[in-house]
Every structure is written in structure tokens, then in C-alpha cells.
Recover the amino acids of this structure.
């Protein structure tokens, strides 16, 4: 009887360890996917100038486009 209980306990412990390892692998995969997404986002996002004030940020498009001549 006691031997069977010990074997059952050992099997449960092994199953728990396997589940923990699988969970860790899944977490690593998710983290890698997130890093890939971040890298893609960084590569595709244009670099914006560091705005020091709100008015500068609002006026930025006007500063970067040439003025339209009035006829």
C-alpha cells in the first residue's frame, strides 16, 4: 500500500515538473514573439523629433513643409 502511494506521489511530482517546464517554454516563446514585434515596430516607425513643448509639436508640420506661395 505504502509503495503504491509513494509511486503515485512520484508520478504526480514528475507531471508537475513537466508542466512547469512546458509553462516556462511557452513564456519564453511569448517573450521572443513580443521582442520580434517590438523590433518590427521600431523598424517601421518613423523617428520623430523630440518635442520640447506642445506648441512646437503642433507647429512641427508647418516647419517641415515649404510655405505655399500666395498668388
Amino acid at each position: 500500500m505504502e509503495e503504491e502511494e509513494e509511486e503515485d506521489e512520484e508520478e504526480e511530482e514528475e507531471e508537475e515538473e513537466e508542466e512547469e517546464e512546458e509553462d516556462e517554454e511557452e513564456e519564453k516563446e511569448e517573450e521572443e514573439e513580443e521582442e520580434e514585434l517590438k523590433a518590427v515596430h521600431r523598424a517601421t516607425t518613423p523617428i520623430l523629433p523630440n518635442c520640447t513643448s506642445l506648441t512646437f509639436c503642433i507647429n512641427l508640420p508647418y516647419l517641415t513643409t515649404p510655405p505655399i506661395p500666395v498668388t
